[in-house]
Amino acid sequence: MQRSFTIGFLVSSLLAGGPAAAAGKPGIPLCFERQEVLPWRTLDGGGLNFELLNEVARRTGVEFDYQSMPWKRCLAQLKANQVGGAFAVSFSQERLALGAYPGGQQADTERRMHVDRYLLVRRKGSRVDWDGKSFQNLDGRIGFQLGYSVGDFLRAQGVQVDEGSQRADELLQKLVSGRIHAAALGGADAVRLVRGPMAEQLEVRPVPLVEKPYYLMLSHDFVARQPALAERIWKAVAEVRNSPAYRKRERELSIVPQSGR
User: Fold this and answer.
1) Is the pLDDT of residue 26 over 70?
2) Reduced to 3 states, what is the DSSP secondary structure of residue 105?
3) How many Cα atoms within 13 Å fall on the side-chain side of residue 63?
4) Preceding amide of 19 cis, omega within 30
5) Which pairs with CB-CB distance under 8 Å and at least 24 residues apart come from 228-231?
6) pLDDT tens digits, 79-109
7) Phi, psi of 222 (to 5 degrees)
8) Higher model confidence: residue 26 or residue 203?
9) I need a labelling partner for 255 at 20 to 30 A (CA). Which of 37, 51, 131, 248 fits?
10) Which helix (H) or strand (E) holds 184?
11) What is the pLDDT of residue 23?
């Protein structure tokens, strides 16, 4: 069962608000993963992704209908044109078949939503590590979440992988139990989780495995039917992200320092 809520011209705690959406105006359905990924999003519509998109809605005169669901289902619905868009999606050539990135065949990093990184998490006492070029002392599988693009990176390194976990906490429980040798987690997720109950057992290595920009993808059908509106939305994403108010919020809420901004 998916959760859905419409947030159009809502006034965020930070960014200037606008007038209420016109009564009965249909929303553009946008799907996102049903998991909290701080500081970017929470299941009830909090976080920087929503603050950015709410202001995009206000500036462009649209309304977004946010729908949370498992990530692979979200991408499948994007491909089937059952939603107008999905966020936040890293770039890969394979995903060009699912929908449209800002900039087309090569995503335009200036119109990204944010940059995040994947970090290596290991059990305390383990010697497995990543030096920025290769893994050391790896004797087993590295786990990552189902459908996440970091899997492509890990496979390109020639390592054994485990893609059997949907949630970050499930993945780390698997690491604690010794079923995998290490885990690749999004930077903010990694730091948040090992600061919690698992802090005595796990640690995050400092060198990022990979750093990626993340985008609002729009469905092929939406872009074909409303190309001018699609461009306005993507342009507004860049404008809001670069605005002083949003950048201030980003500094306030970011857990892991963000580079490449």
Assistant:
1) no
2) coil
3) 16
4) no
5) 229/60, 229/62, 230/100
6) 999 999 999 999 999 999 999 999 999 999 9
7) -60, -45
8) 203
9) 131
10) strand 182-186
11) 41
Q: What is the pLDDT of residues 173-224, one digit of tens each?
A: 999 999 999 999 988 778 777 778 888 899 999 999 999 899 999 999 999 9
Say whether pTM exceeds 0.85. Answer: no
Question: What single letter denotes the amino acid at residue 137?
Answer: N
Return the sign of the alpha-carbon dihedral for residues 31, 33, 34, 35.
Answer: negative
pLDDT digits (tens, 9 = 90+) for 45-64: 899 999 999 999 999 999 99
What gap in Å lies between CA 113 and CA 229, rounded to an integer? 17
Rounded Cα gap, residues 59 and 236, in angstroms: 7
SS3 5: strand
Task: Kindly state the tokens that stand for 118.
Answer: 């994947």
Q: Respond yes or no on whether the N-terminal peptide bond of residue 156 is cis (omega within 30° of 0).
A: no
The owner of tokens 């092929």 is 220
Stated length of the chain: 261
User: Token pair for residue 212?
Assistant: 């990626």
Average pLDDT, the chain: 86
Burial class (CB in 10 A: 0-12, 13-18, 19+), 88: buried
CA distance 58 to 18: 6
137: left (phi over 0), alpha (psi -120 to 50) or beta: left
Burial state string for 54-68 with b = 16 or more CB within 10 A and e = fewer than 16: bbbbbbbebbbbbbb
